[in-house]
What does this fold into?
Amino acid sequence: MDTRKRTLVKAIIWNLIGLIVMLTVGFIATGSFIVGGAMAVVNASIGLSSYVLYERVWDRVHWGRNV
It folds into this structure.
């Protein structure tokens, strides 16, 4: 079982990766770092919240664990 701190650190690192990817995709799609950056920040914010919630829910599911 992960601690809340570990879940948060994993989520932040994952979202930093996603932020870089989304910034690149946003820039390619729009030609603007400002618009691409805004898209990336919104996406990362939603993604971080969703990931933390997802991990905490799965942490309570005992199915598939070797205990």
